[in-house]
Design a protein that fits this description.
By secondary structure, the protein is mostly helical. The chain has eight helices and four strands. A two-stranded antiparallel sheet has the order 1-2. About 4% of the residues have low confidence. It binds heme C (HEC). The site of heme C has 29 residues, from helix 3, helix 4, helix 5, strand 3 and strand 4.
């Protein structure tokens, strides 16, 4: 066995330590430390169970999902505007003035449906039907008047008599909304009467001002005048 202890110490990092046989010297400790250091530096940290880095495609899919969500929000988010939740639709600009288009079916669902029902058949004994009702499909003035000021007392609709109360809507709904909802009830569930304009509603409202709910006979008189 060659006597390695004779060689100059620490001259090369690849030098093997003189660990086998012989006396224990200071230089031996240096080598052991050096080697130990190298081994420690080479060792990787043990990966912990459940904390392995995810595969690349997980990142790719995450980025893709984020991108798609961002696009969707940008396209349909409406800049967080509350207009999206209103009955009225977002504004359409006509010659500089902001004009909102109102949907009659949405007004109906929001304010009339609880009583007259989604199918316009009403509730027997309580709320009269609008589908096929002579009060709805004849002259446009009658349903406008009813919605504006309400209706009470005995009334016969499609051969059945009701005696209940309908509230007025002239304070709650705009002329556009009343025109839209009256147009809706005149053209739904088999009804096929002409549409109503907000101008007609405006005229009646200006003419009648503030007044009490109608009785059937009052409406009957006004109807035959037309
Ligand atoms: C709180 C319940 C209620 C609501 C809400 C209501 N109505 Fe009525 N409506 C009635 C009642 C009750 C009558 C009959 C009144 C009577 O008995 O004198 C009636 C009568 C009518 C009539 C005439 C009779 C007929 O059946 O054709 C029309 C038209 C009408 N309502 C339309 C509407 C419209 C449009 C709305 C929504 C804007 C509306 N109503 C909201 C209860 C309601």
């Amino acid at each position: 066995m060659p006597d390695e202890s004779k060689k100059p110490q620490g001259s090369s990092s690849h030098q093997r330590p003189a660990s086998s046989g012989g006396e224990f010297r200071d230089s031996d400790t240096t080598h052991v430390n050096e080697i130990h250091q190298r081994i420690v530096a080479r060792e990787q940290e043990e990966p912990e169970e459940g904390f392995e880095p995810p595969p690349w495609w997980v990142w790719a899919i995450s980025v893709l999902i984020l991108f798609v969500m961002g696009f969707y929000l940008g396209r349909y988010g409406g800049s967080w505007s509350t207009v999206a939740h209103e009955v009225e639709q977002p504004a359409v600009t006509v010659g500089g003035a902001v004009k909102r288009s109102v949907k009659g079916d949405q007004v109906y669902a929001a304010v009339c449906q609880t009583c007259h029902q989604a199918t316009g058949v009403g509730i027997p004994g309580q709320y009269p039907p609008l589908a096929g009702s002579e009060w709805v499909i004849n002259d446009p003035g009658t349903p406008i008047r009813v919605v504006l000021y309400g209706f009470e007392g005995s009334v016969t609709v499609k051969g059945t008599t009701y005696n209940n109360k309908m509230p007025a809507f002239y304070e709650k709904l705009s002329e556009d909304e009343i025109a839209a909802v009256v147009t809706h009830i005149r053209s739904s569930w088999g009804n096929a009467a002409e549409k109503v304009t907000s101008g007609e509603v405006e005229t009646l409202r200006a003419e009648l001002g503030v007044r009490a709910p109608w009785s059937a006979s009052e409406l009957q008189t006004l109807r035959t005048k037309k």
